[in-house]
Amino acid sequence: MHQFTRLRGFQDLIGPGARTVSLVEERARAIAEAHGFREIRVPMLERADLYQRTSGETSDIVEKQMYVFTDRDEAETQVALRPEGTAGVVRAYIEAGLDRSDPEQRFFYGGPMFRRERPQKGRYRQHHQFGVEVFGRADAACDAELLVLIDELRCDLGLELRFEINSIGDQTCRPSFREAVYRFGIEHEKQICEDCKRRIRTNPLRLLDCKIDAELTKSAPRSADYLCDPCRAHFGLVKELLDAAGVAYVENPRLVRGLDYYSRTTFEVISASLGAQSTVVAGGRYDGLVEALGGARVAGIGFGIGLERVALAVEAAGKTSVRRPDAAIIALGAAATRKSFELARSMRAAGLAVESMSPERKLKALLSRADKLGARFAVIIGENEIARGVVVLRDLTNSTQSEVAENAVADEVRNASKS
Known about the structure:
alpha+beta; 8-stranded mixed β-sheet; 5-stranded mixed β-sheet
């Protein structure tokens, strides 16, 4: 018989692993909502040329990583599974006419992304992101607020993360910086990797992103040396606001976004516990992107969180929190099974986590199973207990038990769980 296995680069999240990813997303969602963001849901399939326009034809995403195929129902249109979230959100924002009717918007989104890259721990061909995008705000306070939001999530999850920030200038001063990096690349063309040799004439800032040439680019031009006065003031205010909010950061002059419509603030958040795949959040300002996709001249900024990577950091820090049952209900006999459904429902209505056990197994096996699940109590019901309106409440921690009135068992379990 053929053995079915998951595809290379894809993973199953089961039990605690799935719960930790969900926990990160739930906390990110709650914090984003507290900052006034609204949810947006966009398709997992988009036209492939959307990502060519947003990520750039020389980007790794477009050159190597996209899952692209022809949609026969769309006049042979080339479509792609989304490799990232920003492009679809910007497309939806423009298509809804918000860029002209109500340009200032704050959105959050979540879901799977697909990139056909070399799999390793923390890097999967299907991964999940949580992201936010802000439109219609060009001010430094907006940049700082997004970093504060991420820091609030960091604190909520109990993580130690490093915030790296930079400014890459705008359409006024960035061309000079780009030209300086181009000249640096040409001067060192014999030393740089093959990808950078190919890209240096079309997208020279990608040189600064390259992991292979990281040592060489330590001596490359720094964007801070080319900033115009307005960009320098903008970045200075971002740092001032982060200092006021108590958000620790370091400046990383190699942190760039190698596309022409990115501008000013860029940032990454790093976990020291993840090895090579250490970036857990990345983002930046993209004031030219809406206009580049046919919309109005509207400022934009956003970030994406790699949920699996943050979940790995949570696990490495020992901060996982999987709720275990407060009680397991064991019914002995048909009448007790019917009663157990009634009792379990009332206990869950009282806010308790209750797991109903199989009525077809022996009591000893069921007690062992309840203990393995991590339940604090077993609630045992038989015909004798039904006749007297009681249950047997067994404390699985210290192996003691007592009879408790059926209508008082929820209070007994809740009170004991608090102690």
